[in-house]
Amino acid sequence: MKHNKVGSVMTTDVVRARYGTPFKEVARLLGEHRISGLPVVDEDEKVVGVISETDLMVRQADAPDPYEPRKRFRFTALSRRGRARAVKARARTAGQLMTAPPVTVFADDTIVEAARTMAEHHIERLPVLDEEQRLVGIVTRRDLLQVFLRPDAEIRAEIIDEVLVRALWLPPRSVEVAVVEGVVTLSGHMERKSETEIAVSMTRQTDGVVDVVSKLTYRLDDSHVEPAAQALHGIGDDWLRKL
């Protein structure tokens, strides 16, 4: 599928910091560009950490106040999280302020994979890497949500071209494709059950698809046939092994 890669929705003009970038410069970059976070890179443009507004807030919140009585020692300061927070509270550079290791994605990862990574780690942006693990972009939740703004007609055209014609080698009108508010309905009669499963699976992974309703029927139930004996065509055999 040609649209569902992170590289197709990421921002390539990335605001970044170096390990030795001063604290105030980091704050200036976030404020000037109106962003909530940025990656920290080394000399080879490889991401070594990320900084968020929360990291800067820790620096300010934990800064000692000369007019307050000295706080009692707490054993939580001995924990890994406590030590990391203490370092950030005294941070003067991006390297001391950043969170490491960074959570990243690759440009060739799917939008679904990026969304799952964001949800799992409770973050709003991800540095995007190329094959050599160098920074090439940044992707945000808003970027990922853009796929659901695709027009129904555009989604329908992609399903017909990519799924029916290119993957299953079917005539464009052999299956009826209807798209309403991102919900796709597939109707028609196909030769094998495996082809209906491939059609539904690929359609579901098309950018902008909210749900798939299958009204597909088939002549032959080949679900119990060995893969080597199946006479699939196009790229259908590869998709069947993924189901």
From TrEMBL:
Nucleotide-binding listed as a keyword: no
UniProt keyword annotations, A-Z: CBS domain
InterPro entries to which the protein is assigned, alphabetical: BON_dom (IPR007055), CBS_dom (IPR000644), CBS_dom_sf (IPR046342), Diverse_CBS-Domain (IPR051257), UCP036990_CBS_BON (IPR017080)
Superkingdom of origin organism: Bacteria
Residue ranges of domain BON in the record: 151-220
SMART domains: CBS (SM00116)
One Pfam family here: CBS
Domain CBS: 10-66, 98-154
Stretch forming the signal peptide: none
Name of this protein: CBS domain-containing protein
